[in-house]
Amino acid sequence: MNLNISGHHIDMTEALHNYVASKMDRIERHFDDVIDAEVVLEVEKVRHKAEVTMQVRGATLHAECTQDDMYAAIDGMVDKLDRQTLKHKEKEKDHHNRQARHANLNMDAG
Q1: Rg (Cα) of the chain, in Å, rounded?
Q2: Do residues 81 and 27 touch, judged by C-beta distance below 8 A?
Q3: Partners of residue 55 on adjacent β-strands
Q4: What residue spans define the domains of the chain?
Q5: pLDDT value of residue 57
Q6: Poorest-confidence range of 52-56, 81-85, 86-90, 96-100?
Q7: Are 82 and 70 a contacting pair, CB within 8 Å?
Q8: Which residues pair with 15 in a beta bridge?
Q9: Distance of alpha carbon 83 from alpha carbon 106, whole angstroms
Q10: With contact defined as beta carbons under 8 Å apart, do 62 and 77 qualify?
Q11: Is 1 exposed, middle or buried (0-12, 13-18, 19+ CB in 10 A)?
């Protein structure tokens, strides 16, 4: 997975970078087909926002979360993205199963 982490109005410390990278590893464990992920961390006064756009085979997934703490925003963003990847994986799996069932029905009819 190609991971690009950037920040707006925030100093990207090594600890923050490593935290995002470790959290994104969780996504990669659940879903192998991640091509590219771009994470943007942003601070506006007291609002901390974490946003990710991820390219996977067959789709583009996007998640964002706003919290009072940057680490909480990153956790919320990863949770949302994790749910989306599992849903996308299920859709992909169901789609292939329907094709196989349809092919079996056609073979039985013929």
Answers
A1: 18
A2: yes
A3: 36, 60
A4: 2-109
A5: 84
A6: 96-100
A7: no
A8: none
A9: 35
A10: no
A11: middle
The second-level CATH assignment, the architecture, of 2-109 is: 2-Layer Sandwich (3.30)
SS3 letters across the chain: CEEEEEEECCCCCHHHHHHHHHHHHHHHHHCCCEEEEEEEEEEECCEEEEEEEEEECCEEEEEEEEECCHHHHHHHHHHHHHHHHHHHHHHHHHHHHHHHHHHHHHHHHC
pTM over the 0.85 mark: no
Copy the structure tokens of residue 27.
């996504």
Banded pLDDT at 64 (limits 50, 70, 90)? very high
Report which residue type is found at 23: K
Q: Cα separation of 99 and 52, whole Å?
A: 32
Query: Cα separation of 57 and 100, whole Å?
Result: 20
